[in-house]
Amino acid sequence: MIKFILIVNKLGQTRLAQYYTTGLSINKRVALENEITRRCLSRKDKECSFLEFRDLKVIYRRYASLFFLVGVDEEENELGILEFIHCLVETLDKYFENVCELDLMFNIDKAYMILDEMALNGNIIETNKKNIIAPLHIIDQVSKKLK
Amino acid sequence: MSQTYINKLNYQDFVNPNKPNYITKEFEKLIREIGDCKSKLDEDRLIEQQIIKLKKFTKKKKIKPKQQSELVLRLLFCQLLGHDVSFAHILAINSSQESNLFYKFIGYLAASIFISTNEDLQLLMINSIQKDLKSDNTLAVSIALTTITKIITVDMIPAVLSNVLILLKHQEPLIRKKALTAMYTFLKQSPESILKHQKDFELMLDDKDISVTGVALDLFLFISKTKPKTIKHLVVSFVEILNLIISGKLPIEYDYREIHAPWIQIKLLKILSYLGQDDPNTSREIYQVVQLVLKESEIGFINGIFAGHAIMHECIKTITKLYPSTKLLELASIAAGKFVTSYSNNLKYLGITALTDLVLVYPEATNKHQIIIVDCLEDPDETLKRKTIELLFRITNKSNISFIVEKMLSYLKTQKDQKYKTSLVSRILKLAEEHGTNIKWYILTINKILQIFGDLVNHDIVYNIMKLISEGSLLEDEEDEEDEDDEEEKESGKEGSQLTKYDGNTALKIFSVNIYAEIISLKKPYPNILYQISLWVAGEYSYLCTNFTTEEIMVNVVDLINAFYISDETRAMAITALTKMVSHSGKYLEQIDTIIQKYSTSRNTDIRQRCFEMKGILQLPNIIDNILPPDSINTDIEIDTNLEFLNEFVENSLKNGGKKYISKEERIKMENELQLGINENKKKSKELRFEAYQSNNPQQSSTWRIPQQNIYEREVNNNQISNTIEIENSISLKVSGISQRWTETGYSGFKENENQNIENKKEKGEEKNTNDNNQNNQNNNNNNNNNNQNDNNDNNNNQINQNNNEKILDVKSFRFNRIGSKEPILEEENKIQEKNLNNDNNNNITTIKQKPPKTEEELKREKTVNALFNGVGSVRTSRKKSKSQKVNLNSKHITKNTIEKNNEKVENLIDLGSEKN
């Protein structure tokens, strides 16, 4: 099960955070993010993309200046998650057409929506990009009509 | 592939982002500023400013929907960056209630993120969610369902459950899918109530849209973990779906890098592994499909696609969990081998993880890959190394233990995490203990570990080693050693044959003493724990050492004692070791004198103690062997728990009138009885004390009281009289009297006594009875003085003490009786006698005068005060000496009769008193 999905930049600043567990206060959340980000950023390219942290396994992948970090429990398939991250990036890229950090910031609502279409309750629910993006286009149409 | 994204992302950063049309200038400014922040500090400052601005907005009563949604997005950013924005959560709620789909979407999104910190929001949202679930707009329903998965709690399930169940049959796959995710949330929160609807989502397995099936699998995965028996009948369906997927019959959109729906495959494999666990029948149904999936995924493996690896890894995990099938286990170990031998650290890591599980059911799995596994320890990747260590712990056996421990130790040296190191050291020690077959190797390994990590080691190891050396044997085939490998036996047999003239145990001792003597001779700052073992071994078995003479070892130990790097504890052990060596060898070094001299003044009491011990023992060459016999660690020391050798002494003491020992139980019993008495005493004493202490003038007080007071006076007077002659020169009696005079109530005056004594004449009848008690009082009082003279009068004193103890009880009970006694009969003789006495002897009388029955507390205090002020008391009495002598003279003729009644003990006591004088 996925515990959280985190997108941070290379300076360790959070760009997107989605938690699938409840009961985490803001302070604890920030502390957790800082600690995990610090550890992931300090790792070298050749080292494996997994990090064991307390009772969590953190799977991370770097895309230019952005790090995608996914915290999972013991039984989750690490490579499955690693590929899921890639699938997520591909989907973002497909929707934003050459996605960049600022895209995610200006369109944080859309980024969250993509994530919600792909994973809920800590489970991967959809990886078909067509299906993921379809509802987003509807929202886009609605928002374009706004005055 | 990811490389291309890296490039794209690099060039696109901050150049030309997709800017939605609804973004305001202010929002854009905020985003740009956040993007420009170079540190967390800048960012925090920026967000704090932003929050101040946002607070102003939230105070406005009317905010347009557009502005509201924009504010909500800004709030979202603030929360994302770790700031509390609970002041404006209501904006998100308001936004979710807008009719425009976009505003609604923003509102729900923000609310579902804020909700983690503010549970009150849930109640505010439930209404709009209920409304939206019934909406005609598919997207509105979808958004509402998404929100449900994030905010729902057990209490809220009934409010939305019926709606969600209807939506399971919605025509749009998107809604069916989302409704299932909502069901999953309910299932997790309250499994019992949702399992009733299991039939509803069983149907979803056959949904024409594979995405919907995929989400339904999540529910079944959850059930398979908690209640696998309820869905065993579905195994066929799961296998069918899996077959369908790998046969490539799904729409091409579900393919990911030529692998068909890898995540759904993973889910299915997980479910099957839970269902087949510990169930041979179900497992057999699953074997074939797993084998097929494994084979299919290998195609992906060749192409170097991770998705294929993911499935393969899942297959290995499944095979490990299923009821064991040798064929599949072999396939799994081959697959794991491919992972381990891969170029990628990710795959290596997973290979090691897979093998760690696999070896538990299939120990042969690692046979081919041991070298590669061990090589992983040299990889710079810490995650990989830690995983490898875990695997190594599992695959260690008697044949590879020495190799693995060596590798582990070299890995440990590179570790910096102290906590991890400590746990690892103890695990390695355990490993060596479990699998070590060769004692020599074990001792050497432990020494090696202690040399480097001695500070991290639990001290139990010291005793293990000591026990091993003193009891172990090098000739393992000779003794009752169990399940040794043939090779090992041969090996140890060889070792034994070199030392044929000794038995195995002695050989071991020689071996270890040589090693440890060498460690001492190295004089390196090793951890104390290693030196402690070394010193003990050297101390015990120095005479067996073949590489060093005892003198050499002794010189080394002396040097070690003077070394700065050992602790006081070790130093103390070194001194004892030295004592043992001197004792065993009979050889003496001059340096030892210096050591004794130097450390006899040590600040450490243990060292000092041991120095004096050594000094003392060395001065007794005749018995030195008895004190420290060689090789005595295993000889049990006979302990005479009854202390029989003291019997004679005890008998003598009893003969001389000593009191018999009272066991603890008896004493407790006695104390309890006493307590009872005192409690009753207390009740009565309360009223008595009140009266007695209040008035100094008996004439003014009520009549009934007077006799009672008189009783005490009389007792005291008699007492006084009876003893005065014998103790003419005795200070003891007077002392206690004087010290008692200063009681809680202050000075008990003369007048009172005088008056009271006149009244005392009335009482007569109980005079005889009181004699004994008076004596007791006297004993009691005297005792305190006698304590000072105990040295000379051991026997007497014992007797007296014991008597006193006994009689304190009597005194109490006596007093108690007195209170209730009837008014005494007047007798003329005593009247005159007492009058004389009282006139001259006011002081003494008052002092010995008994108060009304004393409480336990009083008694205690009295005892302590007497004991404490013995010295003071005697000084005081000496001043009064002249006066008391007068009294004695006066009372001489009067109390002759009474004196005769005194028993021997009192005479003894008095003798003591006179001796003192």
UniProtKB/TrEMBL annotation, chain A:
Gene Ontology terms: cellular component: cytoplasm; endomembrane system
Subcellular location, record wording: Endomembrane system
Keywords: Membrane, Protein transport, Transport
AP complex mu/sigma subunit domain ranges (all copies): 1-141
Cell inner membrane recorded as keyword: no
Any GO BP annotation: intracellular protein transport
InterPro entries per the UniProt record, alphabetical: AP_complex_ssu, AP_mu_sigma_su, Longin-like_dom_sf
Keyword Metal-binding: no
Family: Belongs to the adaptor complexes small subunit family.
Full protein name: AP complex subunit sigma
Organism of origin: Anaeramoeba flamelloides
UniProtKB/TrEMBL annotation, chain B:
Superkingdom as given in the UniProt entry: Eukaryota
Annotated Acidic residues bias: 475-490
UniProt KW keywords: Coated pit, Endocytosis, Membrane, Protein transport, Transport
Basic and acidic residues composition bias: residue spans: 751-770
Family matches, as InterPro entries: Adaptor_Complx_Large_Subunit (IPR050840), AP2_complex_asu (IPR017104), ARM-like (IPR011989), ARM-type_fold (IPR016024), Clathrin/coatomer_adapt-like_N (IPR002553)
Compartment(s) of residence: Endomembrane system; Membrane, Coated pit
Annotated stretches, region: Disordered: 475-498, 746-809
Ranges where the Clathrin/coatomer adaptor adaptin-like N-terminal domain occurs: 53-471
Biased composition (Low complexity): 771-805
Membrane topology: Peripheral membrane protein
TM spans (from-to): none
Function: Adaptins are components of the adaptor complexes which link clathrin to receptors in coated vesicles. Clathrin-associated protein complexes are believed to interact with the cytoplasmic tails of membrane proteins, leading to their selection and concentration.
Family of the protein in this entry: Belongs to the adaptor complexes large subunit family.
Name of the protein in its database record: AP-2 complex subunit alpha
Originating organism: Anaeramoeba flamelloides
